[in-house]
């Protein structure tokens, strides 16, 4: 991979990770069309995805920091409740337990955890299928057309008002299933999860925040799973810095793309993205047929 190719793919990753048009689909199509190959196996994919995670953390830094703080306090409260339980059993007392989920941010943390479980299970189980599907133009094409359908459904759905206190953890689990399925190339992670949230009646601004923040543990988990295999590939120091250039590019472009998506979702104008996915998906399928 050359420096120009790395930066180019970083730009594509940064834009498409947050706009509902499938980053995996775009990268798969471009790699197949231009014959771009990475010498370091999965290392490049891991690095550009970590770049977009940093972009999410910067855009939603206040929410992320608050969630980290509430997570620490929840663990402390659970530990304290354990001590109260032991005391009450031993002394036959009736000390009160601390309420764990007493604010929206604590519920938000649990919602992200509920979504991460099915995402991790599906992502791990389907990892070989995803790798195989990425080597063809057919799977990304079909995925992009399905993304177009999801976006049209989201566009015509009624505006919701649900925030964490109104959302069940079962519903969060179902959104996590949608995120797990979106690991297939061509299915937009942000498009699929935001559509699932809007169809479920989530508030539009919270839907995009939830979609992006729930991606953090999913991407970090995938990175941890792949990092050992990625670094086992022997690449030169110069090649590593070429990959790093792509990761930095993905992070910088992703920051602006993420902020743009916040504006788009307020207006809920997904139809243009749906048409784009439909056209690109059709071109990809046609390309697959022609190149066979």
TrEMBL record:
<keyword id="KW-1003">Cell membrane</keyword>
<feature type="transmembrane region" description="Helical">
    <location>
        <begin position="42"/>
        <end position="60"/>
    </location>
</feature>
<comment type="function">
    <text>Catalyzes the dephosphorylation of undecaprenyl diphosphate (UPP). Confers resistance to bacitracin.</text>
</comment>
<keyword id="KW-0812">Transmembrane</keyword>
<feature type="transmembrane region" description="Helical">
    <location>
        <begin position="270"/>
        <end position="291"/>
    </location>
</feature>
<protein>
    <recommendedName>
        <fullName>Undecaprenyl-diphosphatase</fullName>
        <ecNumber>3.6.1.27</ecNumber>
    </recommendedName>
</protein>
<keyword id="KW-0961">Cell wall biogenesis/degradation</keyword>
<keyword id="KW-0472">Membrane</keyword>
<feature type="transmembrane region" description="Helical">
    <location>
        <begin position="210"/>
        <end position="228"/>
    </location>
</feature>
<keyword id="KW-0046">Antibiotic resistance</keyword>
<dbReference type="InterPro" id="IPR003824">
    <property type="entry name" value="UppP"/>
</dbReference>
<keyword id="KW-0133">Cell shape</keyword>
<comment type="similarity">
    <text>Belongs to the UppP family.</text>
</comment>
<keyword id="KW-0378">Hydrolase</keyword>
<keyword id="KW-1133">Transmembrane helix</keyword>
<dbReference type="Pfam" id="PF02673">
    <property type="entry name" value="BacA"/>
</dbReference>
<feature type="transmembrane region" description="Helical">
    <location>
        <begin position="137"/>
        <end position="156"/>
    </location>
</feature>
<feature type="transmembrane region" description="Helical">
    <location>
        <begin position="105"/>
        <end position="125"/>
    </location>
</feature>
<keyword id="KW-0573">Peptidoglycan synthesis</keyword>
<feature type="transmembrane region" description="Helical">
    <location>
        <begin position="240"/>
        <end position="258"/>
    </location>
</feature>
